[in-house]
Amino acid sequence: MNTNELVKKFESLYNQKPVIARAPGRVNLIGEHTDYNEGFVLPAAVDKEIVFAIQKNETSKVQVFSMDMNQSATFDVNELKAQAGWVNYIIGVFAEVKKKGVAVNGLNIVFAGDVPLGAGMSSSAALECALATGLNYIFGGPLSKIDLALAAQAAEHNYAGVKCGLMDQYASIFGMPDHVIKLDCRTNKHEYFNFDFSDFALVLCDTNVKHSLASSEYNTRRGQCEAGVKAIQVHHPNVKSLRDVTLQMLDEVKGSLDAVAYARCSYVVEENIRVEKACEALKKNDFAAFGQFMYQSHEGLQHKYEVSCKELDFLVDCTRDNADVLGSRMMGGGFGGCTINLIKRTAVDKFVSEIAPRYKKETGLDMKAYIVKIGAGARIGE
Ligand code: GLA
Hints:
Blueprint: H1 4-14, E1 19-28, E2 40-41, E3 43-56, E4 61-66, E5 71-76, H2 87-99, E6 107-113, H3 123-138, H4 145-160, H5 167-174, E7 179-184, E8 189-194, E9 200-210, H6 214-235, H7 247-253, H8 259-283, H9 287-304, H10 310-319, E10 325-330, E11 336-344, H11 348-363, E12 368-371, E13 379-380
Parallel strand pairs: 4-6
Antiparallel strand pairs: 1-3, 1-13, 2-7, 3-6, 4-5, 7-8, 9-11, 9-12, 10-11
Bound molecules: alpha-D-galactopyranose.
């Protein structure tokens, strides 16, 4: 994102030169709702980001101006209590970075971004990671990259109230251009895979809906997985999370799990297997196989995990008879946001020009399309 306007605004408001800190949103190719079950995910950072202009003001007050909202807010670093509205995310990051040992103090801030809001590209993780990176830098903090991702996640848990996994914040911090990140959410270690875009493109289709269920159902799913693990532990005391559960084990305990818990758990166990297989396919540049795993992932999310919605299902169904599309699935938490589609590069324009009117006819809503460019992770600098 071009930072000229941001810097100009900062200088005119505070009469100082700022430091720039930035972090991207993310896509996820496969591995959905597996992160908080200690499973595998395959996200990548995108070239859309949230950018902060910041400078110390030698007081304990934080003054923030949001360019996108055209609103300002203030708070004191000695009173980091949750507040309503967007400033809550900022307060959350100050609090969690401070808890991890950064001596935060007063700051002047202007921020802006081009990560679409509510589209499931993790604009909130981008905000949290950009600010955490900026605070750590400007206050000479000791935090490593993983600490920054964990602080950003804690802000989401303790201030935004969503008990998310680590995928979004991890991808935002560790992103690398042209690479997807296979993250093992048990060890918090990753492996990069080159994604060869010469013949294929990733295209997001934005449903333009965000059903209000999203955050409550998210926490419910988390609870259902934990309940499933407890029930499995009765027979298999060594199991710590769904990561330890095999399909065979699940079959053995099927009778003692309620049908919903069984469906949720079997989705997660299968999705972990799919991520592993999808990575094997990626190593061989077998995009056809990769695409099939994407469709299977969607099926599980739709029928077993039940986090899709009719708009997402419609967009995925539209691709099924299109030979130019190799794979399609809902992306992120669900209940709205985007589908992610793996498409022959030469067919992208045709695909978008056909699917958008079909979506409009079906739902009355406009569909936006984003062609994904994989970008770099959080960093300091213009
Ligand atoms: C949201 C959460 C992530 C992850 C996904 C689903 O994006 O923030 O941690 O759980 O949903 O895969």
